[in-house]
Fold:
Amino acid sequence: MNMPKEIMHFCPICKKHTEHGVHPAKKRTMGTAHPRSHGSKYRMAERGKSTGTGNKGRMSKGALSGWKMYGKKGSKKTDLRFTCKTCKKTNVQRKGFRAKKLELL
Structure:
């Protein structure tokens, strides 16, 4: 899908529609998105503690890859950033749309 590099967009800081530069967000790994999160390890240990043994059937389902309806979607949702030309503040896209390939013109 083609999209212009600059669009008119509402700026919550200026409180009016202004010219915005459009650029896609950088890909983030789990480590950079949640650098202090150890969630699953400690959560699994706590689940086992309450009953004394086991994990309340969490692991008895088997791997997702063996499921019938499992598979990657054909397209990803866009994650765009809009930078206001007047106040230079960046706003996040509220709702992404699905596109196989996004090209900024």
In short: The chain has a mean pLDDT of 83. The first strand starts at residue 2 and ends at 3. The beta strands are 2-3, 6-11, 16-24, 76-77, 80-84, 90-92, 98-99, 103-104. The chain is about 15% helix and 30% strand.
